[in-house]
Amino acid sequence: MANEKQRRVRKNPVERREEIVAAAARLVSERGFNGISLKDVADEVGMSQPGLLHYIGTKEGLLSMLVTDSYDTSGTPDDFLQSGLPGSDPETPSFPAYLRFLVRHNASRRMMVQMYTILQTESLNPDHPLHEYFSNRPDSVWDHYSRFPWRIPPQMGSWDEGMRPVVRQCIEAMDGIQLRWLRKPPIDMYDEWLAFERMIFPSPMWDLYR
Questions:
Q1: What backbone torsions phi and psi does residue 145 show, to the nearest 5 degrees?
Q2: Could you count the other beta carbons within 10 Å of the beta carbon of residue 83?
Q3: What residue ranges do the domains of the chain occupy?
Q4: What pLDDT is stored for residue 11 in this prediction?
Q5: How many other C-beta atoms can be found within 10 angstroms of the C-beta atom of residue 166?
Q6: How far apart (Å, rounded) are the C-alpha atoms in residues 131 and 123?
Q7: Tens-of-pLDDT digits for all 210 residues of the chain?
Q8: What is the C-alpha separation between 103 and 79, in angstroms, rounded?
Q9: Taking the CB of residue 23, how many other CB atoms lie within 10 A of it?
């Protein structure tokens, strides 16, 4: 009897990209970007290297897929404004409420947060492909958040006048909390953020703006 031909399962580009992101994120979270090869990713997904390159172009293209096309595109203010959660009114959104939404979102994607944290540490090397991205991150986050009509206490002045140091503190606090959350024993990221929220957005000034 003739050997049966193994039927190949063809996946659409969206499914394949999702597989690549999941596999690469897992590998980077374990070994760092400098510790993996394209062959590692291709083997993890069950593809050839030429097949992988069709989707990512280069190893640096893999980083773009992981960070700018995946990590940065979820948990956004736009996602919050569409959530219907308290404080998400598109006309007068609450910035502290958005940050609570973001913390919950990040708590649901541990592997991606670990990958992002590893890449951020690696990028201290000026030769790392993401060195400029992370160096510019405070400014880019500020610019992105400044697109939205956040409702803030009048004591803060305008968004541009009073909120830039607050946004910086939020980024730094969230990075530190996520690092502790990734360690063992883990902390409750949301509860820890609430403790920082009380310091960054103190009562009574912020009580009506949460």
A1: -65, -30
A2: 14
A3: 10-66, 74-209
A4: 77
A5: 15
A6: 5
A7: 444 334 445 678 899 999 999 999 999 999 999 999 999 999 999 999 999 999 999 999 999 999 999 999 999 999 999 999 999 999 999 999 999 999 999 999 999 999 999 999 999 999 999 999 999 999 999 999 999 999 999 999 999 999 999 999 999 999 999 999 999 998 999 999 999 999 999 999 999 999
A8: 13
A9: 20
**CB contact at 8 A, 87 and 94:** yes
At the topology level of CATH, where does 10-66 sit? Answer: Arc Repressor Mutant, subunit A (1.10.10)
Q: Is 43 exposed, middle or buried (0-12, 13-18, 19+ CB in 10 A)?
A: middle
Class of residue 158 by CB neighbours under 10 A (exposed 0-12, middle 13-18, buried 19+): exposed
Q: Which helix (H) or strand (E) holds 16?
A: helix 13-31
Q: From residue 57, how far is each of 48, 64, 131 by CA, in Å?
A: 13, 10, 20
Nearest of 15, 151, 17, 10 to residue 77 by alpha carbon: 151
Single pTM value for the model? 0.91
Single out the residue of 20, 174, 131 nearest to residue 28, CA to CA. Answer: 20
